[in-house]
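Letters spell out the chain; backbone shape is given numerically. Take this protein:
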Amino acid sequence: MDLENLLEESFADRLREAFSGADDEAEGYCVKDYPEWPIENSAMCPKGGNENIIWGVEFHFYLPFDLNLNIDLGLDMGKGLAIYLNEKVLVEDKTELWWAKDWEHEDVVHIKETFLAGPNHIFVYGLEGCCEGSQSLRV
């Protein structure tokens, strides 16, 4: 990739690219279908650590009609996050986010969107440097 394209690339795209390029043989790497929420890497993944984590969480669902939804994400993403809805960047945040397990906390990420009838996909990517707190969501 040339420098010009790299400079134009968004934080969200770089984060998604880093996750996609993660070594699935690395200690602590795991994939879980339908994990129990709240989730923590250190509890969910064999040999999962609580620092230097890159998260990738996917939600796939089908709607028979358009629907207005409010989704709250309680996250510990100390190095930033990116949220895609149907391949479009919805949220891109490079700040430290820690919801402190409090749905009233200012770092809770609120998504208020009209989801269109048909297949929908939400991808959440995030980075955590140290100490990993719980990740949770509510609709």
Remarks:
- The first helix runs from residue 3 to 8.
- The CA atoms of residues 56 and 125 lie 5 Å apart.
- Helices lie at 3-8, 11-20, 41-44.
